[in-house]
Write a structure and sequence with these properties.
With 347 residues, the chain is of the alpha/beta class. The chain is 34% helix and 20% strand. It is elongated and about 70 Å long.
């Protein structure tokens, strides 16, 4: 049996070649593309301006799987976490957040993760596989269908390391921002990485205008290595160097994510060291009160420690905010809902 083609992962140029290969006119590709990425059609039967013969050929040669919501948790603040099942039965998490400036969706880029960060639920069980471009898009499309509201901001900060799925993620960003798709501005797309230096340089060469976020979580290599195995591969100085190159080339401010773990990385001394590290760099620090995960590193820093940490950074002229807590009354940490599901728990 011939394997069917995942046409939802194709950009318009690739889709035109595929459509012409079916003996159809080139312009049909744009109609098909818009049905998938603007009108969010769930199946070929919905594509009413395509001939029955064309739709029959599409059904025979290609697939439109979609992502199916199998569990959800709704916070009292309206934040909703979705557990979505993919066509092969694997599951990923996505989060819908409503802000005054628009609706944001945080998506997963992999099933599991191989980065091994010791405070994170996503890495429990390691990496299963990377997501296809269509599977990343489908998380957004399904949430937009369910909420009947437009998504204006997208954050690649769910399960997985986006730059460990480089080609599919770059294709996703280009298609998401395409005028023939949802047309979400690249300036409203944030990619979070644990600091894969070589891949950040590859990303720079793509000439995107997204926001880059670095999961730093420590001001020195010794401490970072106890929290994040990737620190044994790339030093903080290497990360700082590539960040300076990124700012110089793109003109875009970098965000540094800093999860506050009680008694580990949350002292005034750590804050002072962090401000010295970031001195002179166009950046912003996002302090994140840790969402504790059973069996993983640490507890949430005390509120007073977080506030004092912020004050030290401000005194040292470092731009800083404390992440607004969304969904604090549900399983907010990436990977928790998926891990529960694997254990057979139900809502």
């Amino acid at each position: 049996m011939t394997e069917k083609t995942d046409i939802k992962s194709m950009d318009l140029a690739q889709l035109q070649i595929f459509v012409e290969g079916l003996g159809e006119k080139k312009f049909r590709a744009k109609q098909l593309y818009q049905w998938m990425h603007q009108k969010l059609a769930a199946g070929f039967d919905e594509m009413t301006n395509l001939s029955k013969d064309f739709r029959s050929k599409l059904a025979e040669r290609s697939e439109l799987h979609g992502a199916k919501v199998i569990r959800k948790q709704v916070s009292k603040d309206g934040t909703t976490k979705f557990l979505m099942e993919l066509s092969d039965g694997n599951t990923v998490e996505s989060v819908w957040m409503q802000y005054h400036h628009g609706n944001s969706v945080c998506i997963s880029t992999q099933v599991g993760c191989r980065m091994g960060c010791r405070f994170c639920a996503s890495t429990v069980g390691g990496l299963v596989r990377s997501l296809r471009t269509s599977e990343m898009l489908d998380q957004i499309y399904e949430i937009q269908r369910i909420t009947d509201q437009r998504v204006s901001n997208v954050i690649l900060m769910g399960i997985g390391e986006p730059l460990d799925n480089f080609e599919n993620v770059v294709q996703f960003i280009r298609m998401l921002s395409d005028a023939d798709g949802l047309h979400i501005s690249q300036r409203n797309i944030t990619l979070s990485t644990c600091g894969l230096v070589d891949q950040i340089r590859r990303l720079m060469a793509e000439k995107l205008t997204i926001t880059l976020a670095i999961s730093l979580h420590a001001p020195n290599d010794t401490l970072r290595a106890t929290m994040m195995p990737v620190a044994n591969r790339y030093s903080i100085q290497e990360i700082m160097q590539v960040c300076r190159e990124y700012v110089e080339q793109t003109g875009r401010r970098i965000t540094f994510e800093y999860s506050m773990v009680e008694g580990v990385n949350d002292t005034p001394e750590h804050a002072k060291e962090l401000s010295q590290l970031l001195h002179g760099l166009l950046c912003h620090v996002n302090l994140i009160p840790l969402n504790p995960v059973d069996g993983r590193m640490g507890n949430r820093s005390k509120r007073t420690n977080v506030q004092e940490f912020k004050l030290v950074l401000e005194k040292n002229h470092t731009n800083v905010t404390i992440r607004r807590e969304m969904g604090s009354d549900i399983d907010a940490a990436c990977g928790q809902l998926r891990n529960q599901n694997k254990g057979g728990e139900t809502t």
